[in-house]
Predict the 3D structure of the following.
Amino acid sequence: MQFLVLGIILILAMAAIRISSKHGIPALLLFIVLGMGFGLLGLDFNDYAFADGIATVALMIIMFYGGFGTSWKMTKPVAKEAIILASLGVVTTALLTGLFCHYILGFSFLEGMLIGSIVGSTDYASVSNILRSKNLNLKYNTAPLLELESGSNDPTAYTMTMVFLSVMMGSELSVPLLILTQVAIGLAIGFVYAFFLEKLLRFRPVREDGLTSVFLAAVILITYASASIIGGNGYLALYILGIRLGNMEFRGKREATFFFDGFSQMMNIALFFVLGLLSNFNDFLKTFPVALAIMVFMTIVARPASVWGLMLPFKLKKNQLHMISLTGIRGAAAIAFAILTVNSDVELSSDIYHIVFGICVLSSLIQGSLMPPAARKLDMLDPNDTVMQTFNYYQDKAEIGFLETHISPESHLVGTQVKDLNLTFDFIVAKIVRDGKPINPRGHVVVKENDMIVLAGAQYFDQDGQDLVEFTIPKGHKWIDQQIKDLSLSTDRLIVMVQRNGKPLVPSGNTKLLQGDKILLQEIHEPDEKA
């Protein structure tokens, strides 16, 4: 019987995902309603310890895959703004909300600050779902800013929650030391593990089909546990690890992308359903007025104040600031931190779970519904921009690769129509970028100097990598300041890539090598014909 119910739940959850994608309703809200519905039908569940375990695992996967799916190239122009909002923005929003809970709603100071900390971060799943399902192509790189902020701000809220929980439980540990420990260890573990994992995946990749995903799942568990055991922020470590791995190429990445895409969806379903099932409808109604007051204050005062105050030095447009202020949707992480609080056995004067639960449900319903019309009203829609999947997404998920080439003023291709390029191999011109704007490469389009052309074709996956050698040119090496055409390379060796200052260069005979260049050398030993 249990398996029958579980199967029905999964089918209904898939239907909820389709409704969410079609109508732009946050998936979080639909899964929670589904869980509440089963609760009203008599499926009794109040195991906060089990829910805490589900929430922890789900957030681990969500945090890692949130970083894994972030294109650093797209978010880099707005990284400073996003990181400030994901850190100081959460702190400011949490403190203002805490003061409101204390002075207006009558909570004790520490309990008010705890509530503010729990609901301080915005929900990545809800924000990205609405942006994509409604195709909200926002001006001024606002969509990448929102996705990076909402994907990376949960660790800050978690740290603040742990700080106030520690104070309320009478811990003698210094608050500044606790914050420093959480952040420093989380960052260190994330970067160190990412560094060694990158080396391992490049030089000793997992060769068996399907096992790359299993290996990465093990690394996720080890990374989180390592940071948590020594007092660091495991979610922060996982986000750093995810960003680094998501922006590098390695054998098995395509299968890992498919795996974590489905697995993260599964964990979202499990988390949100359990959160809805854990709620009691009568308790939800009792705490509704308090939850509504806090949500309205955060939407109208706390979030806008933090956004406008912190973004002042960056001179963002007024309509952009209004849009960013509206998109502070509260979600899964907040409810998970509320479960953590209930399980901590700290003495509370209120039903903190249902208050936070109500805030998140109302935030998803009201702010999520307002985002599309607000984007139009604020003149934030840009027909030349898109939040749909990028070329990176399809390269990771399909057997297709993309190459870019820049047209120099001396190139013989200048003045040639796309239809006359006569590509000898099985390539297609997928995109032309001119003066920073994309152009549809139809046959009549004429290639101009300084154009950037993107070519698409079947992607090659090296089976063993044994014919590739990578090394960095050290100080005093004989190749320094030498052109490639002047090097004494044997016929079975070819320089196929030069990486300089972190950027790849396609080498030609006239390319001059410099100290510190990373060289990718191909060595192919032809078989002995006499053998």
In short: The two ends are 66 Å apart (CA to CA). The domain at 2-377 is CATH 1.20.1530.20 (Na+/H+ antiporter like fold). The beta strands are 400-406, 428-434, 437-439, 452-458, 468-472, 493-500, 503-505, 518-523. The CA atoms of residues 63 and 127 lie 14 Å apart.
